[in-house]
Design a protein that fits this description.
Keywords: Membrane, Transmembrane, Transmembrane helix. By secondary structure, the chain is mostly helical. The chain has one domain. The chain has one helix and no strands. It starts with 8 loop residues before the first helix and ends in an 8-residue tail after the last helix.
């Protein structure tokens, strides 16, 4: 293996572009997961608060 390989400027640009696309996609995926996690926690807190309110007799006033 005595190959003397070199990269052209176009090769370097193509590699950099692919790395940038990969990083951008991973960042967007992680941000999406974070937003969904926040929404999921808000839904769970709302359900727990509703259950606690109902368990404390809060719904008897309305029904």
């Amino acid at each position: 293996m005595d190959d003397n390989r070199t990269l052209t400027e176009a090769d370097v640009r193509a590699i950099a572009a692919q790395i940038e696309v990969g990083i951008t996609q991973r960042f967007q995926l992680n941000v999406g997961r974070g937003v969904l996690a926040i929404v999921w926690k808000a839904i769970l807190y709302a359900l727990i608060a509703t259950a606690a309110y109902g368990a404390g007799g809060g719904f008897k006033k309305f029904f």
